[in-house]
Amino acid sequence: MANILLEKPEYKVEKTTLGTWRRYGYENGTSFHEFKTNATLLGLPVIHYTYGRCPETGRRICAKGIIAVGRIACGVIAIGHASMGLIAIGQLAIGLIFGLGQLTTGIGAVGQAAFGIAFGLGQLATGFVAIGQFAIGKYVLAQVGVGEYVLSAARQDPQAMEFFKALPVLRQFIH
């Protein structure tokens, strides 16, 4: 059996009006796909999508674009298992402005473990406003909370009660 990493792969290349697809099918049935738009902004493709392992390296390619989608993604909006961007969505989502995922960061973060600066929502949450099962922040709504103003099973600070009652989404749940 030939070592395909030592050979120049023969991609199926399809150019469209929007961009270029580059595809490769492995003998075992797996495949590699990559799409980049023709349009760029700040030197990055508007959309970059990757799937599978690159036949040239045997590794996953990081999708890099304004909108980046792939197992590993880096962009203004990044969507992937491991993603990093201004807005990041994924299992590991490192967002500068907003992160959504299992382990996530951002000014605002929503996830299982959400490490937010202004807002965090998750089982484990941090932020100026933190809502979660276990939360740490200034204004905290949690089962177990640590902060300046906490609304929890063990502690009901009046400032926290007023703060969270002022939020229309939570008003009906806080008595």
List the helices and strands and how they pair.
Elements lengths: L11 E4 L3 E7 L5 E7 L2 E2 L2 E2 L1 E5 L11 E7 L2 E8 L2 E70 L6 H8 L2 H4 L4
Parallel strand pairs: 6-7, 7-8, 8-9
Antiparallel strand pairs: 1-2, 2-3, 3-6, 4-5
How would you explain this protein's 3D organization?
The protein has 175 residues and is mainly beta. The chain has two domains: 1-80, no CATH class; 108-175, no CATH class. 7% of the residues lie in helices and 64% in strands. The chain is built from two helices and nine strands, in the order βββββββββαα. The strands form two sheets. A seven-stranded mixed sheet has the order 1-2-3-6-7-8-9. A hairpin with a 5-residue loop joins strand 2 (19-25) and strand 3. The termini are far apart.
Backbone shape: elongated
Largest sheet: 7 strands, mixed
How much of the sequence lies in strands comes to over 45%
Q: Element order, helices and strands?
A: EEEEEEEEEHH
Strand segment tally: 9
Low-confidence stretches: none
Radius of gyration: 22 Å
Look at the structure and give the mean pLDDT: 92
Name the strands of the widest sheet in spatial order: 1-2-3-6-7-8-9
How much helicity do the residues have? under 10%
- Structural class, please? mainly beta
First-residue to last-residue Cα separation: 70 Å
